[in-house]
Design brief:
Elements: H1 2-9, H2 16-21, E1 23-24, E2 27-28, H3 29-56, E3 61-62, E4 64-72, E5 77-79, E6 82-84, E7 89-98, E8 102-105, E9 111-114, E10 118-125, E11 131-136, E12 144-148, E13 153-158, E14 171-178, E15 195-199, E16 203-204, E17 218-220, E18 223-227, E19 235-236, E20 238-246, E21 251-252, H4 254-271
Helix pairs in contact: 3-4
């Protein structure tokens, strides 16, 4: 009946079945309808994948972290030509990075390190609280933070390199290292959470864990930093501390953002779905 009405009503003599199957840009009505339903299903799948994937990747939401090393003198040193390391001075080394960039390694022994971040040094007169000298390390220094999970020790090191490469492990105790007792319950720390270690025998040793060699200059925005001295024993500084503070404000890693983008793309398609 519908076919007869259509054919006689439009005066074309073309049947309803023929009209519905007539091709527009090479695609028939039935094919367009099928594609619309397929697109609708794809949109729902994108939303589901984006939301579900992002939720499963909660651990991939990274967190800014600040590592702070402090030590008091006496130790031989200079920063931008200014003598530092006197008994009344506090040396503070700071490294700001992201927990997403922490790397683990198993050779030559288990541990963790973070190579990406911004590092600085400040020397303060303990009595007056005034700043004696300060500067931000330049990228060429390769400043990094690491922990030895076997022998115990956290380092604010230089000449850092990824695990498994020729330059690894760099200089883990230059310009500063803080020993950890092998019996410390937190010796397995992974640099990804809040933590504090302290030692009465912090050290600055280029050449660690062997004999200390003549310290090299590390470039900062205020001039070169040189710390410690050559010798067969570690150039010790007193009362070293290490503190890690992880921010409570987390940011998604690129992979998580990608999943969320899929979900948003799906939502866009849903909004464009024609009324049935």
């Amino acid at each position: 009946m519908l076919e007869h009405i259509y054919a006689t009503g439009n005066g074309s003599g073309v049947s309803l079945v023929d009209a519905l199957t007539e091709r527009c840009d090479g695609v028939s009505f039935w094919e367009w309808e099928q594609r619309m339903h397929t697109g609708w299903k794809l949109a729902k799948s994108l939303v589901a994948a984006g939301v579900l994937g992002a939720s499963f990747m909660c651990g991939a939401w990274a967190a800014p972290v600040t590592y702070t090393f402090t030590a008091t003198g006496p130790i031989t040193g200079s920063l931008g030509g200014v003598p530092i390391g006197g008994p009344g001075e506090l040396l503070t080394f700071t490294f700001v990075g992201d927990t997403a960039n922490v790397l683990s390694f198993t050779s030559p022994l288990p541990g963790h390190e973070i190579l990406e971040g911004t590092a600085s040094v400040t020397v303060t007169n303990i009595g007056s609280g005034t700043t004696v000298a300060s500067g931000t390390f330049l990228p060429a220094d390769g400043i990094f933070v690491s922990i030895d999970n076997v022998n115990g020790g956290v380092g604010f090191g230089s000449a850092g390199a990824p695990p498994g490469t020729g330059g690894f492990p760099g200089n883990p105790a230059y310009p500063l290292g803080v020993p950890i007792s092998p019996g410390d319950p937190n010796i397995g720390y992974d640099l990804k959470s809040n933590m504090t270690f302290s030692s009465p025998d912090a050290l600055s040793c280029l050449g660690f864990p062997g004999s200390c060699i003549i310290p090299t200059a590390l470039a900062t925005t205020s001039g070169d930093l040189v710390l410690g001295a050559e010798g067969d024993v570690f150039s010790l500084v007193d009362n070293g501390t290490f503190t890690a503070v992880v921010s409570t404000v987390r940011t998604p890693e690129p992979a998580t953002l990608g999943l969320l983008a899929f979900g948003l793309a799906g939502l866009g398609l849903l909004r464009r779905k024609p009324a049935e």
